[in-house]
Amino acid sequence: MFADVMRGNGVDIDKAIGSYGPGRDRGAIDVKVTWHLRDGRKVVDRADALIPEPTGRNPHLPRNILIGPWMGSAAATVERVTVEYTDESRLMRWRFTRRFMTDDEWRAEGYEPRTDLRRELTLDSDMPVG
Predict the structure, then answer these.
(1) Residue whose C-alpha is closest to residue 100's, from 87, 83, 114
(2) Percentage of residues of the chain with pLDDT beyond 90
(3) What's the angle, vertex CA 28, arms to CA 22 and CA 33, rounded to 5?
(4) What is the pLDDT of residues 53-93, one digit of tens each?
């Protein structure tokens, strides 16, 4: 699974768009995605199933939703996004968390901020939760 936040384009340039989807060759069912915004709000989206096509031409993936106003960067807009899902075989429940760090948070952790605009740190990578 992956999850991201990006600035809208065209008429939605001042909007933040949340994007998520399955990996290249694996689908997911019973998906819950939660964006934790810097202003304290949470935006939740759910999907019954996200199944990639072998051709990679599924017009419904990735899923994109409006999550709020764009605050200048991904890290200024979203603190973290969490994706909870079950694998296609229904063997296990998984959680993926992606954290977007501001320059000050990078320094507080003892690192120089990254020079690219994404400024992210992945806390968990597809950890089993049940």
Answers:
(1) 114
(2) 46
(3) 75
(4) 776 666 677 899 999 999 988 889 999 999 999 988 899 99
Q: Secondary structure of the chain in the HEC alphabet?
A: CEEEEEECCHHHCCEEEEEEECCCCCCEEEEEEEEEECCCCEEEEEEEEECCCCCCCCCCCCEEEEEEECCCCHHHHEEEEEEEEEECCCCCEEEEEEEECCHHHHHHCCCCCCCCCCCEEEEEEEEECC
User: Cα torsion for 103, 105, 111, 115, to the nearest 10°?
Assistant: -20
The residue with tokens 């200024």 is 76
Tokens of 130: 């049940």
- Tokens 């690219």, residue located: 116
pTM of the model: 0.80
Bridge pairing between strands 78-87 and 63-69: unpaired
